[in-house]
Amino acid sequence: MTGTIKLSPSLMTMDLDQFKEQITFLNDNVNSYHIDIMDGHFVPNITLSPWFIEQVRKISDVPLSAHMMVTDAPFWVRQLIDVRCDEICFPSEVANGVAFSMIDDIHAAGLKAGAVLNPETSIDTILPYIDLLDKVTVMTIDPGFAGQRFLEVTLDKIVELRRLREERGYGYEIEMDGSTNLKHWKLISDANPDIYVIGRSGLFGLTDSIEDSWDQMVREYEQCTGFAFDNGKYSTARCRRFRETGKARRAGCDGVRPGHAHPRYCRTFVR
Predict the structure, then answer these.
(1) Are 37 and 76 in contact (CB under 8 A)?
(2) pLDDT tens digits for 96-109?
């Protein structure tokens, strides 16, 4: 049994002293990178910036998704357009009166537009322009800091967004953001978002090695959900099928632990 998901590591939670090593490994395995932009006003924290996006661009061609937690959203949209951030997601709570113009500006630049729903914010807030969105992000923790309490009630919005999309033919992807880890894989999987943002508790903080942390994350996902891990770039199911053909043994790969001995046929096998 296989459930296909998309994985978007939050770069705010990575080990910056291992930045190049971790990015180099993840480039072959993830669908996008999640970059938090905070201004110290919308949330009491200041983190990454458009400058950081430019630095990531030098060593990665993986799509970049910016999650803005800012009060002056139009200002930051312009900054992110200038650095060609692939996906620009604004906080719906401050978008009244500027949502349509921001979306138009993002699309005119050939980029994707998204809206973010904080835990207390209802889907009704974005209904006037939901048909224009490429992505809707549901916060499953309070925004601003990593490691906060998982809010199970927010998963209902993921289910409702999927229902709306199916009934009305909307084109947005559904992303969840917050506390994706061993404790919550099953709950999140049951709600069935398209994109999982993952951070320190579910990936970067599991071990001292990004390769070992990745392997542990995959095992925990599979144990909790009952699905083989498959995000379109990295698939344990395909590794197992490859092993069963006998080709893996001839390639020197055991096919059990993805990427264990032969990355051509494991970590990057599905590309």
Answers:
(1) yes
(2) 999 999 999 999 99
